[in-house]
Amino acid sequence: MIFKKCPYLFALKGYGLFYFLVFILAGCGQGQPVKETRALMDTFCEISCYGGDKDKTVSAICAAFKEMERIEGVFSKFNENSEVSKINALAGLEKVAAGEEVFKLTERAVYYSSISNGAFDITVAPLMEVWGFVRSHKSMPDKEAIENALEGVGYKNIELDPKELSVKFFNKKTKIDFGGIAKGYAVDRARDILAAHGIKNGLINLGGNMFALGYAPGNKKWKIGVEDPINKGKLLHRFELTDMAISTSGNYERFFEIGGKRYSHIINPVTGFPCQGIVSVTVAADSAEQADALSTAIFVMGEKEGLNLAKSIKGIKVLMLKEDGRLILY
Length: 330
Ligand code: AMP
Ligand code: MG
Description:
Blueprint: E1 10-11, E2 18-19, E3 22-25, E4 34-40, E5 43-50, H1 54-75, H2 83-90, E6 96-97, H3 100-115, H4 125-130, H5 143-150, E7 158-161, E8 166-169, H6 182-196, E9 201-206, E10 209-213, E11 222-227, E12 235-241, E13 244-250, E14 255-258, E15 261-264, E16 278-285, H7 288-311, E17 317-322, E18 327-329
Antiparallel strand pairs: 1-4, 2-3, 3-11, 4-5, 5-9, 6-8, 7-8, 9-10, 10-13, 11-12, 13-16, 14-15, 16-17, 17-18
Helix pairs in contact: 1-6, 3-7, 6-7
Bound molecules: adenosine monophosphate and magnesium ion.
């Protein structure tokens, strides 16, 4: 059934969603969701809402997508006219006036750097470029290219002036990349829009960054199953959530292999190399931004340090799959 107000919207029968290694496990036959999927932020986003007036739900979903598309336009590293691209082009030379939204998310990204001892660091941007994760052709860079990029890496290179809302980089090679946090931020904003439109129950899934609003049909908690990326079809764990977010960072999303070794898009800002040893980290938290930043941070920090960080933060749950097959649940 196509709704005229929004060309992409359609209602779905059943709940057999499969999405980025995450299963939504809910009973069937208890009302039809209004659901839409769009390409967004270099991945796919699906919003499904349950219950309530259909026309109002359609408008709510459209408004939520509009907001996420706006956010993509602000933070995209692929669009040279985005605010972040403009900061990257100039902030190594002079103070750049930032919009409040970019300024505040940069501040919060720096906060995640400080609590993760620099493991989460949006200044990995030069490394993302040399490893080719910004271009379509990924390749093994030479030692000099990594060392050269590393000169600009380090969150302490970011100077933020809260009075002027300006951003400056202390190093000319510094650039910022919001890939590890912007999707979570966008999901939180989409959740706010849905809630402001009176939506009580639904799911937002932006490339594995999810928010579970309210309850699943039957007034039960949402059951989100994380699929084993190695043994497809098997679940690693089932989270039961209500008004909570969940985010997965994995080495199987964007990567390339040379000589049987996998190089993934999550980079250790100290060594300049893609992180090894972990297949995936899933974090459940109150906000999608927190879950997004922490799943990336814990992926970089590894088992010992990462779980110590998790223990220091109230209300989060962590699932970690190691390359040696061990599964850790905290
Ligand atoms: P995620 O899938 O949320 O773990 O984010 C991975 C993305 O975050 C990458 O594609 C990069 O854009 C960016 N990124 C890579 N390494 C880091 C890091 N150490 N800290 C913060 N962001 C990173
Ligand atoms: Mg992340």
